């Protein structure tokens, strides 16, 4: 809703929803379906074909409540093949509608030879037009849709949570079943793995290998499990130095992102 409909249907985003959650609710951390859904898929539900890159993407988020308490979310987004013929047909229909609207909006004036010579579109044989019409063909293309699995935790154990989610995803997509049912690993994470004491490390078993999380002691800096290297890669050294200077001088800092 509210998007520019000149975007092709595969480039649009669609409304996502929470398919399942476990446990249903936690007393100290009531589940906010709308917030979690929006933060897990901030750009909405996405569709792709076999021609697009479909590598899993990981990101994190924070839910801050009215009393200032925080919980941390870690989300792994991947793509699954769409098996519903109804959804595939709907995508094909959206493309027919999009192409028809595009032609009405961009058709050259009648008898405009100059327009024909510059666009090469009068006979309907231009590359751009063919690409538009062939961007999704139900008889030829495989349609994929985004799905995500998420962990919500009381502390920001980013590396451990990323490994847990990656191993769960690997177990789901692997042709060989994991050593134990997936439910066993999920139950273990939720109910049998304790929060490590301050200043201690904890090692527990994942689906395919051990996972370690470490909690700083009370006289150390607070837990920050994110690689600082990524900040430099995203912003560059000069911008990081400028940002750090602004923080030291107590300037107001606004971060704007899509």
TrEMBL record:
Q: Looking at the record's lineage, which domain of life comes first?
A: Eukaryota
| Molecular function as annotated in GO | guanyl-nucleotide exchange factor activity; small GTPase binding
Q: Which residues cross the membrane?
A: none
- Which GO terms of the cellular component aspect does the record hold? cytosol; trans-Golgi network
PROSITE patterns in the record: DENN
Q: Which SMART domains does the UniProt record give?
A: DENN, uDENN
Protein name as annotated: DEN5A protein
Provenance organism: Urocynchramus pylzowi
High-level lineage: Eukaryota, Metazoa, Chordata, Craniata, Vertebrata
User: What is the gene name?
Assistant: Dennd5a_0
